[in-house]
Design goal:
Length: 457
């Protein structure tokens, strides 16, 4: 079986390399079963026939139980230990979970190997979930954000040492540029504009168009995190892009839509007659709650709203991860496998004791990990879906897949030459996939409305 096929043979479910079970090849599952049996052994197994007080028996049982846990835990690797701890948390077995957490505490490190670093943050998520403080710790993490300049610096580090953001921006720019090559008035709605960096490259490309550049208008949808990272509101993005457009001779206008995607309505988007519309969703739609969270179902509502605008092209980039409606334990395993690959990819780019790398992981990745593990309901904002599910949602909303230009793949392959050879790029079901080794991590796809059929004579 070819490597490319193994990379994507299971894109409708959990990726192949992300299989969440514990490896049975070396008898570890037997040890986990041994651990489970010991943890679930009833108190009657302890010999309390002596005329001891109830407190002494209870203390003896607790000590014996703890020793049994520590004995088996000492033979587990970090991944197996995390899964065993998650199972104890899921069963509300506080004494077992706390014993395993104490073992984990001694084996994790934010400056260690990728698995040690990830385990440190997953341990925090498990602690928060065990004590039902998931939403509190997540809110605390948001309140204790670094200064805007620090957070921007951390985000820029990840932008440069990993290709994930560039993958999103390059693929979207190629898709939009190809769809708009003959249009004179272009309107782009960016539902996660952040710093607006990707549009600098598009502006330069439009400036070189034969016959002169078209008129370009960009609507930026914002959120509080992006505003904090910028150190100000969307006007900063608009001013920066306007300055670049002026220097390139591109007629430009910026429209400010400073509100979250859940609150966006038609009147916020400033759509005008005579403009050819492109819409981009870069790593954004998974933050929209769907029917499993609220009857409002903002995820599908937003797609229907975009369809009503009759866009010429829609670009979607999302993480290839199955966490939206997954129960806690499968979601925990998926989070573990996905981020293990991500931490490995970061590891090859910076030294393990690099404080900037540590802070980047802490402030740009760890908070999402904690949210995935510790929070439920409306408090859980990280709700990823695999491409097969996104495909179904877009089809149901009335869109059809748009074949990606070969230029997109070629541009991304050129970009990946700057990074580790362990990054992989492939195409499946009309989408581009980027991954680390055999684990798919993100997808990029393009969508359009069905073309009207000519009337029969």
């Amino acid at each position: 079986m070819s490597e490319k096929h193994r990379f994507y043979e299971n894109t409708g479910g959990s990726p192949v390399s992300g299989c969440s079970g514990v490896d049975d090849g070396n008898g570890k599952k037997h040890e986990l079963r041994e651990l489970t049996n010991k943890l679930l052994r009833p108190e009657s197994d302890i010999d309390d026939s002596c005329s001891c007080s109830l407190n002494v028996v209870s203390k003896h049982f607790s000590l014996t139980r703890r020793n049994q846990v520590l004995d088996v835990a000492s033979r587990l690797d970090l991944k197996e230990l995390l899964v065993a701890c998650a199972e104890a948390v899921a069963e509300a077995d506080i004494s077992t979970a706390e014993a395993l957490m104490n073992v984990l505490e001694k084996r994790v490190s934010v400056s260690g190997e990728p698995m040690q670093r990830l385990s440190a943050y997953m341990l925090e998520g498990l602690r928060a979930r065990l004590w039902s403080s998931g939403s509190n710790i997540y809110k605390k993490l948001k309140c204790n954000e670094p200064t805007s300049s620090e957070l921007l610096s951390y985000m820029q580090i990840l932008y440069h040492i990993t290709p994930y953001f560039k993958f999103a921006y390059i693929s979207a720019n190629v898709v939009i540029g190809d769809a708009m090559k003959n249009e004179n008035r272009i309107h782009i709605i960016d539902f996660q504009i952040a710093q607006g960096n990707q549009w600098m490259f598009l502006i330069h490309d439009l400036a070189r168009r034969p016959g002169g550049p078209p008129f370009l208008r960009i609507t930026g949808v914002d959120d509080s995190q992006s505003a904090h990272a910028r150190g100000g509101g969307l006007q900063l993005v608009g001013e920066r892009l306007a300055s670049i457009a002026k220097s390139c001779g591109v007629p430009f206008e910026f429209h400010n839509a400073a509100l979250s995607g859940c609150n966006v309505k038609l009147e916020n988007l400033g759509v005008r007659q005579g403009e050819s519309l492109a819409v981009t969703f870069p790593f954004m739609l998974h933050h929209m709650p769907d029917e499993s969270v609220s009857t409002m179902n903002h995820r599908d509502r937003l797609l229907r709203l975009v369809k009503s605008l009759s866009p010429k092209i829609v670009s979607l980039v999302e993480q290839e991860m199955n966490t939206n409606t997954a129960p806690f334990l499968p979601r925990f395993r998926e989070t573990l496998d996905y981020h293990k690959a991500m931490f490995e990819s970061v590891d090859v780019a910076r030294p393990r004791d690099d404080m900037q790398r540590i802070r980047s992981e802490e402030h740009c990745i760890a908070r999402d990990v904690v949210n995935l593990i510790a929070c439920e309901g409306a408090d859980r904002v990280e709700r990823h879906e695999l491409f097969g599910k996104w495909r179904s949602r877009l089809l149901m909303a009335g869109f059809t897949p748009c074949p990606l230009s070969p230029l997109a793949g070629e541009a991304i392959k050129d970009m990946l030459k700057e990074y580790s050879s362990n990054y992989r790029l492939a195409e499946s079901q009309g989408a581009l996939y980027i991954g680390w080794k055999n684990r798919a991590l993100a997808t990029s796809s393009a969508w359009q409305l069905p073309r009207s059929l000519p009337l029969e004579s």
